[in-house]
Write a structure and sequence with these properties.
Structural class: alpha/beta
GO molecular function: 3-phosphoshikimate 1-carboxyvinyltransferase activity
Strand order of the largest sheet: 22-23-1-24
Bound molecules: shikimate-3-phosphate, phosphoenolpyruvate
Pathway: Metabolic intermediate biosynthesis; chorismate biosynthesis; chorismate from D-erythrose 4-phosphate and phosphoenolpyruvate: step 6/7
Helix content: 25-40%
Enzyme class: transferase
Strand content: 15-25%
CATH architecture of the largest domain: Alpha-beta prism
Largest sheet: 4 strands, mixed
GO cellular component, one term: cytoplasm
Number of helices: 12
EC number: 2.5.1.19
Length: 422
C-alpha cells in the first residue's frame, strides 16, 4: 500500500495503543501459569497475534472474553501441552527470542518458523548457549526444529546484540530442574527491556536475582497467575504522535503510565533536550513545540525511538549526533540505512558514522518519495516527517504499520493528517 500525505501539522488528542512488549510478556507468563489469567489488551497487532498463535500451538487456550472484547482469557499450556508444536513467529523478534528457550524447556521437537527479515536477524549467541545446554537446532536459521530439553546451568551471553536473548532465558530457566546463572559478557544494552521482563515475571510470582555481572535464577519455580493483568499503553507507538506535538502543533496522549519501565518513555526527556515543552499528569501528556537545537545522544538504551528522533533532528538547528546505534541494523530493516535514506529523499542532510549518524538540521524538509523498507517504525517516522515538508510525501509499503500499530493512519487522520491511498 502506497500513501500520499499532504503536509499539515497534527493537533488534538489520541490514546496510546497497547504495548506489544508488555503484551508478549504477560501472555507468556499467563500461558506458563497453573491457573487461568485474564489479560486486558486494548487492541491487537501482528506481533501480539504471533505470540498468541505460538502459545496456542504449544497448548494454551487464548479466547476473547464474552463480556469484554479487550479481555483475553488464557488457560495454561500445561492442560494440553504439545510435543511437536509449530511456532510461526511471523516477523516478531520478541516472539522468536522469548519463546525459543521456553519451548525448548517444555516441548520435545518444536518447529519454529518466521517471515520477512526475521530468519536473518541474529540468534547465534542464544543458539550457542542452548546447544551447550542440551538443545539441538536442525539448521542455523529459521525454519528449524529443536531436539532435546534445555538444561539448567551457567549461561554466558554478550549483552550488546539483543536483550531479547536474556528475556527468553529468564522466562525459561525458572521452569527447569536445578538453578541457573546468566553471565553478561560485554556491555548490556536495552537493559530496561530486561527490567520489563523481571517486572512481568514478578507479577506471576517468579523471582530473579540481579547481581552486577548477570542474573541468578532458582529452578523449579511455579508461575502463579495473579488472576487479572492489564497491558500498559505503548510508549514506543506514542513517540510518533508525541513528536508530532513537538515539531508541529500541540498534541496530547492519554493512556500512558508515568511509572512504566518501558525504555521508550525516554522520548519525553529527549524531546525536552531538543527544546520541546512537555506537561505531564496521570491523565495525559501534552507536548508543545519549542526552539529546537541539535543534541548528542546515546542510542543503546532505546533503539526503537531512534528513527523518529532522527526526524526531530531535522527540525532542530545545528547537528544532532546519534552514537552507539549499530544494533539498529538488526531490526525489521537496517534502520540506520533506512532512516538516513528517508531523510535524504525528503531533502534533509544526514551522514552515517562508524556507530550511528549525524543529522544537520535546518528546520524543515522538502518532501518526496520514500521507501518504507517493510518496517513499521520507518513508515511511521516518514509520516510524521511530512509535518516538516513543503510538498507531498509518498510512502511505499505503508501497510508495515500493522506489526505494532495497525490503526496508525486512522489516528494520524484523527489528528488532522491528510492522506490518500494510491
Ligand atoms: O524486549 C523487547 O520487548 C524489545 C527489545 C528491543 O530489542 P533488542 O534488545 O534486540 O534491542 C526492542 O528493539 C524491541 O522492539 C522490543
Ligand atoms: C524491533 C522491534 O520488534 P521485534 O524485535 O520484536 O521484532 C520493533 O518493534 O521495533
Amino acid at each position: 500500500m502506497d500513501i500520499r500525505i499532504h503536509p499539515s501539522p497534527l493537533s488534538g488528542t489520541v490514546s496510546a495503543v497497547p504495548s506489544k512488549s508488555d503484551a508478549h510478556r504477560l501472555l507468556i507468563c499467563a500461558a506458563l501459569s497453573h491457573e487461568p489469567t485474564s489479560i486486558f489488551i486494548g487492541g491487537l497487532n501482528e506481533d501480539i497475534l504471533a505470540t498468541m498463535g505460538c502459545l496456542r500451538n504449544m497448548g494454551a487456550m487464548i479466547e476473547k472474553s464474552p463480556d469484554d472484547e479487550n479481555i483475553w482469557m488464557v488457560s495454561p499450556v500445561w492442560d494440553c501441552i504439545q510435543d511437536s508444536p509449530v511456532l510461526n513467529c511471523l516477523e516478531s523478534g520478541s516472539t522468536l527470542r522469548f519463546l525459543l528457550p521456553v519451548v525448548a524447556s517444555i516441548c520435545k521437537t518444536p518447529l519454529l518458523t518466521g517471515a520477512g527479515r526475521l530468519p536473518d536477524r541474529p540468534i547465534f549467541p542464544l543458539q550457542e548457549q542452548m546447544e551447550a545446554h542440551g538443545c539441538g537446532f536442525s539448521a542455523p536459521k529459521l525454519p528449524f526444529t529443536l531436539q532435546g530439553i534445555l538444561k539448567s546451568g551457567l549461561y554466558e551471553l554478550r549483552g550488546d546484540i539483543s536483550s531479547q536473548f536474556f528475556s527468553g532465558l529468564l522466562f525459561a530457566l525458572p521452569l527447569l530442574d536445578g538453578d541457573s546463572e546468566i553471565r553478561i559478557l560485554s556491555s548490556l544494552e536495552s537493559s530496561a527491556y530486561i527490567d520489563m521482563t523481571v517486572n512481568a515475571l514478578s507479577k506471576f510470582g517468579i523471582r530473579i536475582d540481579r547481581f552486577s555481572g548477570g542474573y541468578r535464577i532458582c529452578g523449579g519455580q511455579l508461575y502463579q497467575s495473579p488472576g487479572f493483568v492489564r497491558t500498559e499503553g505503548d510508549w514506543s507507538g506514542a513517540s510518533f504522535f508525541l513528536t508530532a506535538g513537538a515539531i508541529g502543533k500541540p498534541v496530547s496522549l492519554t493512556g500512558l503510565s508515568l511509572k512504566s519501565v518501558q525504555p521508550d518513555r525516554s522520548i519525553i526527556s529527549l524531546l525536552q533536550r531538543f527544546g520541546a515543552e512537555v506537561q505531564m499528569t496521570h491523565e495525559k501528556i501534552d507536548v508543545f513545540p519549542g526552539t529546537f537545537n541539535g543534541i548528542d545522544m546515546d542510542a543503546s538504551e532505546y533503539p526503537d525511538i531512534i528513527p523518529i528522533l532522527a526526524i526531530v533532528a531535522c527540525r532542530a538547528n545545528g547537528e544532532t549526533i546519534i552514537r552507539n546505534a549499530l544494533r539498529l541494523k538488526l531490526k525489521e530493516s537496517d534502520r540506520l540505512t533506512a532512516i538516513s535514506d528517508c531523510i535524504t529523499q525528503l531533502g534533509g542532510k544526514v551522514r552515517l558514522t562508524s556507530d550511528g549518524m549525524v543529522i544537520a538540521g535546518n528546520g524543515c524538509l522538502n518532501g518526496g518519495e520514500v521507501d518504507g523498507f517493510f518496517d513499521h517504525r520507518i513508515v511511521m517516522s516518514a509520516a510524521i516527517a511530512s509535518i516538516l515538508c513543503k510538498t507531498q510525501v509518498i510512502i511505499h509499503g505503508a501497510e508495515a504499520v500493522r506489526k505494532s500499530y495497525p490503526n496508525f493512519f486512522a489516528d494520524f487522520r484523527k489528528l488532522g493528517g491528510k492522506y490518500d491511498v494510491l
